[in-house]
Amino acid sequence: MRFVLPLHEIGEKDRLRVGGKGVALALMAKRGLRVPEAVCITTQAYREYAKLTAIRDQIVMELYRKPFKEMRWEEIWDASLRIRNFFSRTPIPPGLRDMIMPAIRSAFSGKIVSVRSSAPGEDASKTSFAGLHESYINISGEEAILNHIRLVWASLWSDRALLYRQELGLDVEKSVMAVIVQEMVQGERSGVVFGKSPMDESQAVVEAVYGLNQGLVDGTVEPDRWILNRKTGAIISHHAALREKALRPAPRGVRLVSLSAGLKRRPPLEQRDVAEVHGLVMKAESLFGVPQDVEWTYKTDILHPLQARPITTSSASEEDERPWYLSLHRSFENLKELRTKIERELIPAMEEEASHLARRHISDLSDAELADEMDYRRGIYNKWLDVYKRDCIPFAHGMRLFGQVYNDVVHPKDPFEFMELLVGAKMVSIERNEMLRDLASWIRREPELEACLKQNRLDQCDASFLEAFDAMSKRFADLTWGEARFGQDSRRVVDFLIEMASWPPAKETQKTESHEELMEKFLSHFDGDQRSHAMEMIDIARASYRFRDDDNTYLGKIEGQWLATLEEGRRRVGKRCKMDTASIEAGQIIKALRDETETPEACVLPEKGLMEGEFKIKARQLVGQPAGPGIAFGTARVVQDPSDLFQFKTGEVLVCDAVDPNMTFVVPLAAGVVERRGGMLIHGAIIAREYGIPCVNGVADAGKLIRTGDRVTVDGHLGIVIIGEPSLKDAEAA
Amino acid sequence: MKKDLQGLFESQRLAVLATQNEGQPYTSLVAFTASKDLKQLFFATTRATRKYANLTADSRVAMLIDNRSNKAIDFRWAMSVTATGKADEIEGREKEEASKLYLAKHPHLEEFISSPGCAFLRISVGRYYVATRFQKVIEVHVKP
To answer: pTM to 2 decimals?
Structure first.
């Protein structure tokens, strides 16, 4: 078994153990192209490592928690982060290390290298997607090289790779990865050339930037672009970039630096360079037989190909959400821009839109006019929903990016430890909860006030209390939950406050390590410039964490305005046909409003029983993911409807589809939280962690398999929910 | 659910039978088969066995049927089903009907079950406890 192969020993026969990238480099080197010195760590080394360390088994446990198709992208990311942590915390066992190290030492002693993925099958025309796996550049030192080999191995299980490999069955036994360790060419100008343009088959495309290629590949640096005649190499057009920065090698990686005034003016390639790069891609094409996509760099005017692979055109269909998902991965620079956009443009615009809608009165509209208004508001809401999906959700990647960096330097046992550093950023829903809590303790303190409120004489009760209550209602009146609005019915809110007041105040959560200690633990790995960059990253991550809630809250206000018309529409249609219209969908309501004669079909939902013939199915224990540590026991309250929410009693276990930011107010009362929607960084998990409440999410069919009144145990350490008395008192008598 | 159970029962030849003697649990590997409606499970044993003595004294039994492969992947892919119920010996027509099913699955046991010392037993299942993915447990209550 060979764990390391030098480039000159690699041939086509090795494709399965060195991957397409390895074979391509070897072939180019054989033909005299100036490929940097490289060795390949074969898939056999990966296999050996996964077997010896039992990581293979851990991946199985993590990945098959539930059927892959049922996992949301956030759950996939979580699983992927946990798997990555296994790799980054598990060193290569000494025996295996001894077999890999000598070849690396003799090839690269004292040199700086890049460590690149080369997964077999990665370049196969159907599964090739650039950037699915990780590559690291500017690495030096034996330990660092070995560590990065493990990180490249881990990227076989990156969220992106998982999504794109799911069709192949994600077989843990068969999934393997080879790694190329390549001498780093610290090029001054770099880029990518496509032998055949995906837009026009008669053309080739050259993209070039100053500095290292990474800046272009991850989208941080905008490239100059040349469109060429594919056959002759003649330049058809040149699109100059706004040249500002370049990615250059720096201690512990790379950094973005500003270009000199001279370079800003000059394109990175001269005409003769463009021709040389075109020559390179054509040579690669004749070597491999199909059009190629080649990464290259110029160092002291010598052109080096860095990697080559066949061009593939993605044939993603409209419904395929994976390209959108890939677009969620943003570079740090991009996140900074996104933050400015969200803070300065989107949130103010959303607020403006909501108050604009609030000024339009609906009660005196005719039915037909109301239908028009519904269409109008729904259109506006959908427009903002798109904006939310396009700009706000990707910004959540800020947390993920930080989490990965944190884990890389701190190597914590809990891969989600980084979240502790994000808490503390105050969220709108937390603020509302604090106001509710204050009002509740007011009631608790003053029995007279409580008696007064209970007797339904709101206007006769303590005036200063009412003032505070009104202030709270006004502030959050337009918030929605499902199709209910918070300010819709103050009686319900008052009853809820009385319920809150009837219990002793919740105790403060205790943290094991303080923010300051964790912060210092993280920052101690950086110095100088790197330290301020690290702090900037925390700042972005915190903003990302906060927006995760806030932007949703602002969107909720717009949604509230749309729902107000829907409510009014339902009321009118319900009155006309004398029936309950609560579950009739919006389109039907609009249609009914416009057509005097038409009455919507009856809206009795078929009773969904879980009976299969004479078998009665009952869940005993359900698996989700551990989203908030702790163990809780209590009576389940399944919240499917706003009225369920207001009936929530202290000490119950909240079971729902997903804790919406607008229903957060009941969370502090809950003993535990169970959600169908999964993810460590989704709102419910964040809030549960914030309050120190055990939480399990990603439980398929949670709302169906658990019923209000069931006694449940929420195990937030293991991610399981047990239904029934813990002591199994209900054991059968049979 | 029913389909999953049927699939598992068809795929497995052997099951673990649990009986007890004055509180001492006792397990045995037995060849089994299930009725079409999954309300009954059948197995056979000679009357001189400890399991036969145990279930004659206390008819309450449990049976475990699983498809583990003895690899780590079992923690996520294996399915294991515990059936609980009461066992009784059947004879005559009932035995004739059930042994047809039984022999279709275990043709090589024809001589065994027709030998005079062999008892043919039926478990009337009260509940199935179905565990998948290591920790997901669903109870199936069977109507008598």
So the answer is: 0.74
